[in-house]
Structure formats: C-alpha cells, structure tokens
Amino acid sequence: xxxxxxxxxxxxxxxxxxxxxxxxxxxxxxxxxxxxxxxxxxxxxxxxxxxxxxxxxxxxxxxxxxxxxxxxxxxxxxxxxxxxxxxxxxxxxxxxxxxxxxxxxxxxxxxxxxxxxxxxxxxxxxxxxxxxxxxxxxxxxxxxxxxxxxxxxxxxxxxxxxxxxxxxxxxxxxxxxxxxxxxxxxxxxxxxxxxxxxxxxxxxxxxxxxxxxxxxxxxxxxxxxxxxxxxxxxxxxxxxxxxxxxxxxxxxxxxxxx
Length: 258
What we know:
This protein is an alpha+beta fold.
C-alpha cells in the first residue's frame, strides 16, 4: 500500500490563517467599507458574505480597466502596470480602487488596435495596452472583439530580475526618493493568466496606496509557495486556495523597503 500523497501546501497554522483573513478584510475595508457593515471578517463565512455583497454591487461596473495583452514579459509587465496606475488622475484612481482595481485581461495586439480604441497607457514594447478605468459599457465593443487572455501554462521559476518603475510622461516628479522592494509571487499550480490577475491587483493597489512610486526598484522573486517565505511584507495578495476552498493562500507579496 502506497503512502498517502502530501498536499501541495499544508493547512495554514491558526495564527497565519488569521493574518491572511485580516489582510483580506483590510483590502475590502480600504476599498468599500460600506459593503462590510455588520459583517464579522475574522471568519471565512464572514468573508464569503462580503464577497457576495461585492459581486452584487453595481459599483463594480463603474470603473473597469481593460488590459489588452499580446505576450507579456513579466518583469516589464510589472513595471508598466505600476506606470499605468501612476498615470491615473485622482478621480480615476479613487474610482478604480473602489471597484477593487477590477481589470479584464484580453488577448490582442494593442498597437494594431490603438487607432480604433483609446488606450490610456501602452507598454514600452507595445505588448500591453490599458484603457482608463471606465464604466463597463464604454468598452463593450472592445470586449466583444477580443477573447479573454488565456495562458494555462504554469508560471516558471526564474532567477530574480530587477526592474525600475517608469515615470509616466507628463506627470509631476515623484514625491519621494526611490526605494527598492522585493516582489514575490507563487508559481506552483498558478497559471500565467492567474499570475497576471494576482500581480495586477497587488501592484496597482500598492501604487494607489503610495507603496510604489516612479523610480522605485522592484526585484521579482518567483517562489513555489509564499508560505515558505519568512519575512515581513508591506502588502499581500490573498485569495481562496483553489485546492482548499475553506482557506486562504498568499499568491503575491510586496516586501518592505530594502
């Protein structure tokens, strides 16, 4: 009789599980405190009720970003995602944050579409184009034209790569001196498409919260599991563990300034 197969990730210890719940609850409160009134967000049941309210909330449709993706180079994509978020005006930033930085990733050729659709930001190599945060109905034609970006291949581990966050053209100088942070993301059983979603939320919200600014250095460090990384984080991206729906998992994390 063969030995039982060990799970990919062991269940989180109670203290760790509570920290993940707290981080998830803080993200919801920061964006929409009105949606969690009366809910106990220290439990998974309370968190699920909050998510039900969020899914039913019409405000999610008020500021949706469409990102048209050709074939992202992950380090460059991370830097350009930050540059896009930095380029938003205060009103756009508030609206997008209120919509939980909702972003639809579609497969396409941004440079070929630039003449027909208005992109607020294009990556330096033309691999990704972002629309401004707009009501979902505004980008209906673009969304009908393109399919959801699908990249089912698992994220591959690689040596750490450091990138500098560009300064958006035409914007005032950075308000502080650049800092250097490490950006960790999980690769085990996480597809490229899923990784873009997790990193997009983490990076965009870190920019909107002032943790990342133009000129900052980000060192990307892929790891099989974030649970194995023992160091403090400035921000984390947590989501339900697809293999254990009653628990949370860290999919990406931003380190404290080096």
